[in-house]
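Incident log entry.

Two folding requests arrived from the same account within the same minute. Monitoring flagged them as a possible duplicate submission, but the sequences differ. Recording both here for audit purposes.

Request one:
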Amino acid sequence: MSHPRLGAWTQPILALVVGTQSAPGSLEDVVAAAFRNGADWLQLRDRQVEARAFLDWALPLARAARQAAGPRPTAILVNRRSDVARAIGADGVHLGFDALSSKEARAFLGDRALVGVSTHYKDEIDPALLPGADYVHFAPVFAPLSKPAEREPAGLEGLAAACSRGLPVLAQGGIAATNAASAIGCGAHGVAVTGAITEAKDPGAATAQLRAALDSA
C-alpha cells in the first residue's frame, strides 16, 4: 500500500527497534552494522530513563544509523516521546497506549513527520480511529525472539487480516530471515525486528540476510 510519507522506500521496509538493553556489546556498533547492510528505519525505545538521559542515549545511535546508511533513505523514530523526537531532529514518532494520540502527535510534529502506532488486534487498525497515522506495527505475528510472549501470536492469517484494514502494516514479533518474505506475502509493508539483529553473533550479516529475504518477496 502506498503512502505519501512512505514513498522514499520502494522495497519492503526493514525497521530495527532498539532499547538500552537491546545488545550486550556496543549498541552503536550494532546499529551501524545494521544500516550498512540494509536497515531502513531505527526506532529508539526506552521507558526507563528521563528525557535528558534519553537524549544522551538516542543522539549517538541516530548519528550512527545515518552515517552508516550513507545516501540511502533512512528514518529515525522515537518510541512514545514526541518531545524527544522533536529535540533530536528525528523523522517521526512511534506511539503506544501510553503516548499521545496519533492526532495529537501529528499536530505536534507537523505534516512531514512519520507517525506510527503499535497494534495487536486487527480491529485496532482503522484510519478513522487513528487520524494522522502513517503506518502501524502489528504484533506479535510469531513468538518474539527478544522477550517472552505477552499475547498469542496472530500468525500469517492474522497478519493478512491486519493488512486488509487500510493502513500500511509493519509485521513485528518473531520476524527472521526465514519468515520475512512470508510476512510481505501477506501484504505487510515491511517488518520490525529486534532480536533477529541485536542478538545475532554478526548483526551485519543477519541484517543482510533479512534484507535479501525482504527484497526477494
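Request two (distinct sequence, not a duplicate):
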Amino acid sequence: MLTEAQTGRSSNVDILGLSGFELAFLTERGFFAPYRSPEANTIAEGFKDATGLWTAYYVNTIITAYNTRQVTPKEAP
C-alpha cells in the first residue's frame, strides 16, 4: 500500500487484515475511509472505531505471566 501510494498508483481494497501496529500506522497516514457496515452493529463497542474506519473481526489477547516460585512480586514486570 505504501509503495503504491508513493508511486501514485492505488488499489481499491474493501477488506484488509492488519495487526494493531499496521492499522495505527496506516490510519495516521489517512489510508482509510469510513464505512459503517450493518454487521458492525453486532460488534461490541471497543472492537470498532467510533468514526467507522475499522471493525475488529478477531482479537489476539496478549498477557504477561511469570513463575511466582522464581520471581517475587517485587521483581515481577
